[in-house]
Amino acid sequence: MQPILSLQGISYSYHNLKGETPALSDISFQVAHGEFLAIVGPSGCGKSTLLSIIAGLLTPESGSLSYRGKCLADCGTEDTVRIGYMLQRDHLFEWRTIYQNVTLGLELNHALTRENQDYVLKLLEDYDLYAFKDKKPSELSGGMRQRAALIRTMAIHPDLLLLDEPFSALDSQTRLNVSADIAQIIRNTNKTAVLITHDLSEAVTLADRVLVLSKRPASIKCEMPIQFSIDRRDPMAVRNTAEYQLYFNHLWEVLTNEQSVFQTA
Ligand code: ADP
Ligand code: MG
């Protein structure tokens, strides 16, 4: 089947008065429909830059990017890939209620139809936020706010979810549960997701495949498919398996050793 996303030889540098900062170097990979891909790499290596390129917010210096086999410029309206982008901070507006926040994207796109409103109400129910729909963001916990941010992203029916360290602002206990919840929601709805994280445990626990990036300028050091013999719903149970330890140790080796034997690219 056609991959939903394909990157071929993508490179990118920032240019400013101080000179050039190379951020990405020759990045190539594909993402299959329904896949959950995690990308890990050291802080400042170019992860957010890569996601901005995938979202079409930055234009690559060289290389090509295609969605369902077509370059963005060649996509017709019928085969455009709808992208949902979720960031580290939830960016909820304090002067709007939770309902008004989660419908913001629809409102901006003039798509606040009865059908879409019903869909949002269902999402609020599914994510245990229905009772809070008329509250302001400050009345919610960090995990609830992050779920609200996910509903806002899901409300536009994205084909591809881009998640840029969406759990970083949460404390470690909340983070474990919220990230497992959100990954489960994404799997249940058969969405395709690219998750950026600097947390290797999170990547191994949640993803179907992990890409490890090198220091800046980022290149792909290693790619590893992840499979568990147990259900992934319980993040602590996953972390207690021998499989988890093996994956984690291999990837840790790659991440911390610039000359790793696991290097594949
Ligand atoms: P990460 O998300 O992995 O932490 P980023 O993609 O945000 O890394 O940034 C990669 C590198 O590019 C960093 O060294 C950062 O300082 C630099 N950078 C990011 N944005 C800009 C910009 N707008 N102008 C110049 N340099 C930038
Ligand atoms: Mg970043």
Topology:
Blueprint lengths: L4 E12 L2 E13 L4 E5 L6 H8 L7 E6 L2 E2 L11 E4 L11 H5 L1 H5 L5 H13 L15 H13 L5 E5 L7 H17 L3 E6 L2 H7 L2 E5 L6 E6 L9 H5 L2 H15 L9
Parallel strand pairs: 3-8, 3-9, 6-7, 7-8
Antiparallel strand pairs: 1-2, 1-4, 4-5, 9-10
Helix pairs in contact: 5-6, 7-9
Bound molecules: adenosine-5'-diphosphate and magnesium ion.
Task: Walk me through the structure.
This protein is an alpha/beta fold. Helix content is 33%, strand content 24%. The protein is built from 9 helices and 10 strands. The strands form 2 sheets. It has a 6-stranded mixed sheet, with helices on both faces. A 4-stranded antiparallel sheet has the order 2-1-4-5, with helices on one face. Strand 1 and strand 2 form a beta hairpin. Helix 5 runs parallel beside helix 6 and helix 7 packs across helix 9. The longest helix has 17 residues. The relative contact order is 0.18. It binds adenosine-5'-diphosphate and magnesium ion.
Question: In a few lines, what is going on in this structure?
Answer:
With 265 residues, this protein is of the alpha/beta class. The protein contains 9 helices and 10 strands.
